[in-house]
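Lab notes, practical 5.
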Amino acid sequence: MAKKLYVGGVPYSSTDADLKAHFETIGPVLSAVIIMDKMTGRSKGFGFVEMENDADADTAVDQLNNTDFQGRKLTVSPARPQERRF
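Output from the prediction step:
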C-alpha cells in the first residue's frame, strides 16, 4: 500500500524530478510533487512524495529527515489528511 509523505524545506529551484530522484535512493516512488503558488507560479518550498510501500516510506522518514538536499535541510514526515476549507 502506498504511503504519502510531507516534505518541507525543499529548495525553491528544485523540480518534481529532483525530489523524486532523491527519494528513489530509498525505494520506488509513485509520485513526487512540489506545491506551487497559484498566483506567482513559484515553489512554496514544500511538497509530497508517495512511496510505493509503507516500509520504504518509513525508511525515508528515518533516513532523509533533517538531511541536506541541494543546500537546504529537509523535513520529512507522514502526511496528514488535508483539512476541509470553507
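Observations recorded by the TA: The helical segments are 16-23, 54-64. Strands lie at 3-8, 29-36, 43-51, 68-69, 72-73, 75-78.
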